[in-house]
Amino acid sequence: MVESLLKLGNPPLSKPLLPLPFQFSLSSSRSLPMSSLNSVNVHRSPTASSFHPSILVFSGGTAFNGVVEELKKLTTRVAHVLPVSDDGGSTAEIVRVLGGPAVGDIRSRCLRLSDQSTSEALAVRNLLGYRLPLDAQEAKLEWYSIVEGEHSLWKDVSKAYRETIRAFLAYFQNQILRRTNESFCFSNGSIGNFFFAGARIFFQSLDAAIFLFSRVSQIPTESLVLPVISTNDRLTLGCELWDGMIIRGQNEISHPTNGSLQLIDKENSSTLPSRIKRVFYMSSEGSNLLHEVFPTVNPSVLEQLRNVDCIIYGMGSLFTSICPSLVLLGVGEVIASRSCAKVLVMNGSCDRETSGFGASCFVTAITDALNRTYGHLNNRLKNNQPSEYINTIFVPKDGEIPVDMKSLATLGIVHVVSVESMKDPKVGVVYEPTSLIQALSNLLKQK
């Protein structure tokens, strides 16, 4: 089934599944270069306004999602750079059994960017955004109903889309069955993650899987979802605390669950014994004490950084969502060389990673990550100042993080913009999306 679906031309939909003239073939899709993926993202929407800035956003998979829809009203020329080291939730189970990079944050952003204009688009979005029950047996039974095409989620999904999605779900299932020594747990599993993992393994290419997922979920063709590291390997994030303690795994750093299958509670995790000094990538093998490794940044990320009108450090977990994208060789060099808008969008409250932080602490952490201050001696940038990386800070009104203006001024940052906020019962103070994007629009027009 997979081979036949890849030879599809233009399925009978209001929008083609794979934009012509690009077509997958078994001879080329397994090693699809990123330049090929970007080639379909060069034209602008004919209805776009004359003010159509290009933006690159460093973020994780959750916090920034709340403003993605509003951002599309300003511009769809956005490169979303996301980490691939998350090892929590259903992503952890996929990585444990099948290996490879974490795809949860990428899947989450793709769905937020996906089309919602038709009943079929909504049906596809609901299917790929669906999570199975927490009970393992119930989850397994429901998974079989979905992969066999019998579940009610398939309603309003046309035959072409159904066959495409089911083929990769079935391929994912086949890969699980081949791992006879591992028992896969479907508890709280994301159907989108399963589809994404199936596509990545089939193509042996994370970029190709993102391309396919983007076309299936019909995200704007000018929008890019970029893994900060383009790899088929498993990546593990580590952190070093100021007291010398080493913590292995993003989930253990950010919101540990003690190995249980309980839902992750990002707001009520216990505090760290010491503040985080740095984050880095780790391997299960290595010659040094920390087993530290130095993966290569996705070249497409550097290409976008060199050309966008604005660089944003989005809301989210500072050390496990933002900094993993900043510590890679080359990122700090390119950002420092740019004279564009460089905006830090502050969180509304602190979390386990940033307990007791003021705004200047966020700036220092980002600067240290981009300078690789506490990393390998040969990789450090010694002279770049905070103002070379950040020239504007957005803060939510009534936010819980102190904005220490004097400390910011000593770091060379004086432009702080207060933005309307609202109260979210689950996470506390968050930005009012319209006000945040309006503030960004005003800034870019001034620039």
From TrEMBL:
It holds the Pfam family CofD. GO terms for molecular function: LPPG:FO 2-phospho-L-lactate transferase activity. CDD domains: YvcK_like (cd07187). PANTHER family: MATERNAL EFFECT EMBRYO ARREST 18. This is Gluconeogenesis factor. The lineage of its organism: Eukaryota, Viridiplantae, Streptophyta, Embryophyta, Tracheophyta.
